[in-house]
Design brief:
The protein is of the alpha/beta class and about 450 residues long. Helices cover about 35% and strands about 15% of the residues. The structure holds pyridoxal-5'-phosphate (PLP). Pyridoxal-5'-phosphate binds near residues 116, 152, 261 and 286.
Length: about 450
């Protein structure tokens, strides 16, 4: 690996501001500069190799630099780089929309593109809100949204309004619109102090009461299906999503399913909705849509919603929303490449034994006494570290235990990104069994080194 003449680390620290990053700490500590990537590995400017244990923030699906996706982007670039989607259309956007409609629940028939998960959610919110405006007087009170405790739907002001991660969202409260907060059935720290094996999903009863009382004011309910990802991989019991769907139908409230994290195989099926045959009114996808190569999101909805926006121009039923790069052709081509790889490599089929292996090996982590909980949905994993397993008490924030663990993992050649003291494992779906073993071994050793004060070997040069 040839030396990089410029000191990129120093220049970064001089010019840049990183997302979700305390920049004082960033500037004061050594940082990695990534130069290239291949398959499940990232390579830094010093030629060191790292396993990408969180899929470059949950986006990468088939590994980096997959030839099929690379070729799709290259050939699109030669044909059409970008053309507006306001008043024009193009080939890749049409082809992709057809595919997305075919592969999602049967009631979803229309695709609206945007650039990222946050905007994809905003689109669903605005469409639902406007849909109810078009329904006339009897629904004129429907102006609110229900979202869940600990929810994360993105960082724009609308999606933050739905959010429930106090650490990220509290400070912006004066800027936000009010939402109704329902309890997400994440059972490790039950807000009602109930036992999940006997409570019969008590959160559902709470939600039913809320809807019974407020449905006339509610446009839509927004949910992360099966697992609240950014909250710390909080899994919910099987059956809850279906119950939520039934309630939404009963009370005439739209169901918006945010599959930004769970989509594209993460939970073992293409979309988490499929586990319970749920047919939402809106389905939002982003992160994995292009296989983790380019920014693109899609909000899918029903014929019923779509038709409510049809009319003469002067009726002003148009959906007045769009982004400059809506349906960017390169991103659509990348997404087509992504779907092609799913098919040609039987990605979902090959994923099943990996999910089972992951589940089996995660059992070993209970040997570590500071592991409080282990949560898994497909290849989405959260290992929660606690000071005391019995009382579930957290480590003092200033110890930065989760952060220390990922620094240990980095020395051992694995890139992770924790959520507080929850260690997240979310490898590319294409990861091999041997690489998966390395990921688990390193996570285990790193947790052990930090929480039990043991030292082990440093990063090996490759
Ligand atoms: C990441 C994420 C978002 C936001 O997506 P961005 O592309 O980062 O804006 C929204 N919802 C969920 C469930 C997510 O995990």
């Amino acid at each position: 690996m040839k030396n990089v003449a410029r000191d990129y680390e120093a220049l970064d620290k001089k010019y840049l501001w990183h997302p979700f990053t305390q920049m004082k700490e960033w500037i004061e500590s050594p940082q990695l500069v990534i130069q290239r990537a291949k398959g499940a590995y990232l390579y830094d400017t010093r030629g060191r190799r790292y396993l990408d244990g969180v899929s470059s923030l949950w986006a990468n699906i088939h590994g980096h630099g997959h030839p099929t996706i690379t070729r799709a982007i290259q050939s699109q670039l030669r044909q059409l780089d970008h053309s507006t989607f306001l008043g024009l259309t193009h080939l890749r956007a049409v082809e992709l929309a057809e595919k997305l409609v075919q592969m999602t629940p049967p009631n979803l028939t229309r695709v609206f593109y945007s650039d990222n998960g946050s905007t994809g959610v905003e689109v669903a919110l605005k469409m639902s809100f406007q849909y109810w405006r078009h329904q006339g007087r009897s629904f004129s009170r429907k102006k609110k949204f229900i979202s869940f405790t600990n929810a994360y739907h993105g960082d724009t002001v609308g999606s933050v309004s739905l959010g429930g991660v106090d650490l990220f969202h509290r400070i912006y409260k004066p800027l936000l619109f009010k939402t109704l907060k329902a309890f997400y059935p994440s059972c490790y720290r039950c807000p009602f102090g109930k036992d999940p094996s006997t409570c019969g999903i008590y959160c559902f009863e709470e939600l039913e009461t809320m809807l019974g009382r407020h449905h006339q004011e509610v446009c839509a309910l927004v949910i992360e299906p099966r697992i609240e990802a950014a909250a710390g991989m909080l899994t919910s019991p099987a059956g809850f999503l279906k119950q939520v769907e039934t309630l939404c139908r009963k009370f005439k409230v739209h169901l918006i399913v945010d599959e930004v994290a769970t989509g594209f195989g993460r939970t073992g099926k293409m979309f988490a909705c499929e586990h319970e045959q749920v047919c939402p009114d809106f389905l939002v996808m982003a992160k994995g849509l292009t296989g983790g190569t380019l920014p693109l999101a899609a909000t899918l909805t029903t014929t019923e919603v779509f038709d409510a926006f049809l009319g003469g121009y002067a009726e002003f039923k148009t959906f007045f929303h769009g982004h400059t790069y809506t349906a960017n052709p390169l991103a659509c081509a990348a997404a087509m490449g992504n779907l092609q790889v799913f098919q040609q490599e039987k990605t979902l089929q090959k994923l099943q034994p990996k999910i089972r292996y992951l589940g089996k090996r995660l059992g070993d982590f209970w040997e570590l006494r500071h592991v409080g909980d282990i949560r898994q949905a497909g290849v989405m994993v959260g290992i929660e570290l606690v000071l005391d397993r019995e009382s579930k008490s957290s480590f003092p924030t200033e110890l930065r235990v989760g952060h220390q663990v990922i620094l240990e993992a980095r020395r051992r050649g694995v890139i992770l990104r924790p959520l507080g003291d929850i260690i997240v494992l979310m490898p590319p779906l294409s990861i091999s069994q041997a690489e998966l073993k390395t990921l688990l071994d390193v996570a285990y050793e790193s947790i052990k080194a930090v929480t039990e004060g043991k030292q082990t070997t440093g990063n090996k040069r490759k």
